[in-house]
Amino acid sequence: VRVADVPLAAEDLELPAPAWLALTAGWNFAESLGLPLVGYVAGERLGGQGLGMAAATAVVWLTAAVRKVLAGSIPSLLVISGLVLTLQTVLVLATGSVLLFLLQFPVANLALCALFARTAPTGRPLVAKLAAEVVALRQPSAAHPGLERFFRGVTWLWAGIFAATAIGLAIVLAVEPASVFLLFTTVVTIAGVAAGTVLSVLWFIRMARRCGLRVRFRQA
């Protein structure tokens, strides 16, 4: 009997084998971030920033449509990418203003904050759904209070990270030139995602130990 065929115990969590875990996560990020980036670069070279943003948005929603036809569902990360890119594209195309082009970055983070915060107090926090889709985390069939509290808490954590990023970007946009703002945006975005990921993993490890949850890997 394969490990994957054995029912999960109340204290078990299951992840794919490391190679499949990397492939699953990589595929999700390639769909949601890599393909839109390719679309943006191609469109930007052909017709500038506006066409680049429109191409990136079109690529995301085309990918979502293909996913819906082939798999019957659309991953949440792909939906998030599509919604954020759509918002940014509307801001960019609404006017040729440089200010509105730059404003897309704090607005996008504010939108992500609202999206995570809206699901945090519910029975389906967004991080739990992303964990199931992006890293194929399999949870016990019986609800676990500690695990539920963790997913709600981490969803609030990411909402706070996006809120802080939005506020920081808005302040820098108001007082610094565009070149400094774009550099600051890149640094803060990378640092925020890295810090959120590290904090989430450490929180998960601490929660698993305190609640007696075990993580195992499915065998191929």
Structure description:
This protein has 220 residues and is mostly helical. The chain has one domain. It contains 7 helices and 2 strands; from the N terminus they run βαααααααβ. The protein has helices at residues 18-47, 49-71, 76-94, 98-119, 126-134, 145-175, 178-211, and strands at residues 12-15, 214-217. A two-stranded parallel ribbon has the order 1-2. α6 runs antiparallel to α7 (178-211). 25% of the residues are buried.
Topology of this protein?
Layout lengths: L11 E4 L2 H30 L1 H23 L4 H19 L3 H22 L6 H9 L10 H31 L2 H34 L2 E4 L3
Parallel strand pairs: 1-2
Keywords:
mainly alpha
Output the radius of gyration.
19 Å
> Which bin fits the share of residues in helices?
over 70%
The count of β-strands is 2
Spans with pLDDT under 50 lasting ≥5 residues?
1-10
What about the largest sheet? 2 strands, parallel
Report strand %: under 5%
Give the class from helix and strand content and strand pairing: mainly alpha
The total domain count is 1
Chain-averaged pLDDT: 85
* Largest sheet, spatial ordering of strands: 1-2
Count every helix, treating DSSP H or I runs of 4 or more residues as helices: 7
Q: State the distance separating the first and last CA atoms.
A: 12 Å
Which word captures the global form? Answer: globular
The ordered H/E elements are: EHHHHHHHE
Question: Summary?
Answer:
The chain is mostly helical. It has helices at residues 18-47, 49-71, 76-94, 98-119, 126-134, 145-175, 178-211; strands spanning 12-15, 214-217.
